[in-house]
Write a structure and sequence with these properties.
- The complex is a heterodimer.
- By secondary structure, chain A is of the alpha+beta class.
- Chain A has one domain (about 1-120).
- Chain A has helices at about 1-20, 25-30, 90-105, 110-140; strands at about 40-55, 60-75, 80-90.
- A three-stranded antiparallel sheet of chain A has the order 1-2-3.
- In chain A, helix 1 crosses helix 4 (about 110-140), helix 2 packs across helix 3 and helix 2 packs antiparallel against helix 4 (about 110-140).
- Chain B has two domains: about 10-80, no CATH class; about 95-120 and about 150-170 and about 175-325, no CATH class.
- Helices cover about 40% and strands about 15% of the residues of chain B.
- Chain B is built from 13 helices and six strands.
- Chain B is globular.
- The two termini of chain B are about 40 Å apart.
- Classes of the chains: A alpha+beta, B alpha+beta.
- At the A-B interface, helix 1, strand 1, strand 2, strand 3 and helix 4 of A face strand 1, strand 2, strand 3, helix 8 and strand 4 of B.
């Protein structure tokens, strides 16, 4: 099982990155990629929802928090490689691009796709996160205690 | 006799045309874009997502625009849209321990590991109108500091280590779902939490406030309030493993409440829990207080007859779409119903009048 998850870890990471990246960023970087793979669309793109769950008291039994919109698509390249895209929101191009990127990442084009699309997306995600974290850090309270009275 | 009434089509069409014009308002004022609402009315968007029970900021902003800012109408639009979506599945439970926190405060421990991080809060503002915003809305530069790289631990985990707080029982990974099966009582805690998180903010706030004023008081402290983003992960059958399908902002509130003990069990604090989509802290705190009040039975407390302890009362009246649907339907034509009432009261008055005349004659 551990072996299995290790093998899947890179794919899991790029699919998650594509899902969470803004559709506009994916589209812009996709356009910069000079590879336009021959493919057939196996499924979708289809807009749907995922029921998001939480846990009572953060650690207890699961409960349904509410749904979020997700769009998915699956493609097959001419060499038979299958790619899946699941992305947040309702942008169908985003899902199709994610599926094609997922397929390409399983081919010889992986290095180019990584350098052109995934690398910049990862950097943007890290920057977004650290920008907010830096602003949050500036709002951290420094307490100082005033000594009152004698002893 | 029942007489079907037709008509009003022209009047309805014209009313809707006028509604569209009124929605737009004065055309010499620039039209609002959906993106402007999403970015600048973010807390309204959050409320619509939470109570509409669908996380999609663009859709919520569109609903607010369409509803002319009537948030319950916007929530109604989102609920209606939600029912048209095929459901791909359920996520694994979000891990709030690993939240990227914009805000994280504790009212119980000053020196909590991870610190007191205020975030973009209205707290400590003077609540004076800022007329600068009427002139221009340019934000000043925001100060930054070295980001915290560590996970921010839950305050409750410290109390839990010492067994000072009641532990949360584990449960099924697939909880019951209000949107698929109608609510039945007694409700499980999972159903109560689902119902509370999508319940009307005003109603939940009122219920929570009633517990503070003494109706089933449970002495809540906010052990922790955190707001930030968490990834949402779902198992994908065609892949055979789970991936992140998105990232959402949530507000989580954990309360530590009055303790209990017995001859066999040493005293322990109890807890209430609130978790809501978006930056929605008033709602999350309210939810935690009401969750705690509704747990009286499982915690072996007395039913004090307080409204906040009555799950039938709380759960059946917290949904503003159900409530407004039933409430507002009474303005629609009831001509025939009322006609029968009118005939009845005329008949009764006639009889009463006849009796009076007869008594006077005798």
């Amino acid at each position: 099982m551990n072996m299995m998850s290790d093998l899947n870890a890179p794919r899991k990471a790029w699919l998650g990155l594509l899902a969470k990246s803004p559709a506009a960023d994916v589209a812009r970087l996709w356009a910069m990629l000079t590879i336009a793979p021959d493919h057939t669309v196996l499924r979708g793109p289809e807009i749907g929802s995922v029921m998001v769950r939480g846990r009572a008291g953060a650690v207890g039994a699961a409960f349904n928090l509410g749904e979020m919109t997700v769009t998915r698509a699956s493609v097959k390249l001419s060499d038979g490689t299958i790619g899946h895209g699941y992305v947040q929101g309702r942008n169908q191009d985003h899902a199709l691009q994610a599926a094609q990127i997922d397929a390409l990442m399983q081919t010889d084009a992986a290095d180019v796709v990584e350098a052109t699309v995934l690398g910049p997306l990862r950097l943007a995600a890290t920057n977004r996160k650290s920008d907010r974290a830096a602003k949050a850090a500036a709002t951290k309270v420094d307490f100082f205690t005033m000594v009152r009275g004698e002893d | 006799m029942y007489v079907a009434v037709k008509g009003g089509e022209r009047a309805i069409d014209n009313a809707h045309a006028w509604l569209a014009e009124e929605r737009r308002g004065d055309t010499s004022v620039p039209e609002l874009t959906v993106a402007q609402i999403r970015e600048q009315m973010a807390l309204a968007v959050n409320r619509v997502m939470a109570e509409g029970s669908l996380y999609d900021p663009d859709l919520a902003a569109l609903a607010i625009k369409q509803a002319r800012g009537d948030l319950i109408e916007a929530i109604f639009l989102i609920r209606a849209y939600r029912t048209t979506l095929p459901r791909f599945g359920g996520s694994t439970a979000i891990d709030t321990e690993n939240m990227s926190c914009d805000r994280r405060i504790s009212a119980t421990f000053k020196d909590a590991p991870g610190g007191q991080v205020l975030g973009p809060t209205f707290d400590y503002t003077h609540r004076l109108l800022d007329f600068k915003l009427a002139a221009d809305g340019e934000a000043t530069d925001v100060p930054v500091d070295t980001p915290n790289q560590d996970t921010t631990p839950h305050i409750m985990s410290f109390l839990d280590q010492e067994q000072l707080i009641q532990s949360e029982p584990a449960g099924d990974d697939t909880p019951p779902d209000l949107t698929r099966t109608p609510l039945e009582l007694p409700a499980t805690r999972a159903l109560r939490l689902q119902s509370l998180t999508r319940g009307d903010e005003g109603f939940i706030l009122g219920m929570a406030y009633s517990t503070q004023r003494g109706y089933a008081r449970n002495h809540a402290f906010v052990a922790e309030l955190r707001i930030g983003t968490v990834p949402v992960e779902m198992e994908i059958p065609e892949l055979g493993f789970a991936i992140d399908v998105g990232e959402i902002t949530v507000t989580e509130c954990e309360t530590v409440n009055q303790f209990q003990g017995s001859k066999t069990q040493p005293p322990q604090f109890t807890r209430g829990y609130g978790l809501v989509f978006g930056m929605t802290e008033r709602k999350a705190i309210s939810m935690a207080l009401v969750d705690r009040a509704l747990r009286w039975k499982e915690l072996g407390e007395d039913n004090l007859g307080a409204p906040a302890q009555d799950e039938e009362f709380v759960l059946y009246h917290s949904d503003n779409i159900q409530a407004t649907g039933f409430l507002e339907h009474i303005k629609l034509p009831h001509y025939v119903d009322f006609q029968s009432e009118l005939e009845l009261i005329r008949k009764l008055r006639c009889e009463a009048q006849a009796n009076l005349t007869q008594e006077a004659a005798e």
